[in-house]
Amino acid sequence: MGDALLAVGTRKGLFLARSTGGGPFEVEPVRFSTIGVPSVALDTRATDSGGSAPRILAGIEYGHFGPSVMWSDDLGATWQEADRPPIAFPEETGAALARVWQLTPSPSEPDVVWAGVEPGALFRSEDRGATYSLVEGLWNHPHRARWQPGGGGLCMHTVLPHPTDPKTMGVAVSTGGFYRSTDAGASWEAANQGIRAPFMPEGSQYPEYGQCVHKVAMHPARPERLFLQHHFGVYRSDDFGGSWTSIGDTLPSDFGFPLVVHPERPDTVYVFPLTADMDRTPVDHRCRVYRSDDAGESWQALSDGLPEDAVHASVLRDAMCASPAGVFFGTRDGEVYGSRDDGESWFTVARHLPDVLTVRAALL
Question: Which of helix, strand or coil describes residue 144?
Fold first, then answer.
């Protein structure tokens, strides 16, 4: 096991933790101590210019000054920000940036980074995440004007670039649903067939769009297969969103927010079930991650090392990740846990942090 970096964005600051040679994680002093950090990316790609230093990207909330994106090329020692607002809506849209929900480096274009934002829009960067431009094809989609905010807002929380084809990608917005493009974002189609929306009237519960999607994930070795956590179910698609099949029927609850795929095994997926009522707490108040090793056909509860009494340990949509460094998640009561054996056992990384919003990990 090599050296690992863990980034934890919270309601009050960014916490970085490092592990050397598979040893314990040491949590460093907080960065941006009074600022919310809802999105983080650990960009370990080589660049067109030949650089190879990991870049940490952080979507931050300045309070009265609004959201922004900052980056560090020295593992958090120093930070930079573009001279102009890095993400800004063109004046003619009449929109204003509310939050940067997602930062996703492209696996097929070395300097490209995608940003999913609120209100429901996609931005593209061609300078490793320093500055961004609006993807107008999605912004001008006729469905967009009828998207409605979910409980967390009108958030574009998932961006899935194809691992080898830069023209193909998918996004998810709550509560618009899943959309896909095959022409580099020039045009988009809703791809929600088979996802039930039980809040709709009988006969209208499988709409073209309007689903309350919480998270979508894929594995780069099998990009046609997608997994989706919905407000009312867990689903799988084997044709990049062309159709969806329920895979959450045997879970103790098919409500939840995060969903991640194992970094090496495309059929292994993790979820964190919550009660579907407004409490949104772990089922039976027990902190348990559920793993499927057969693409959702069956599920196994994983709790070794996790607290038995976890009344408020809910996990937000981006507060879980799976990488070669391990599987990690953080809770709304400020606890962070990790596993280096695919979830069979867990250890505590940090305690008593602020409300955890996002967790990302990478080997250095």
Answer: helix
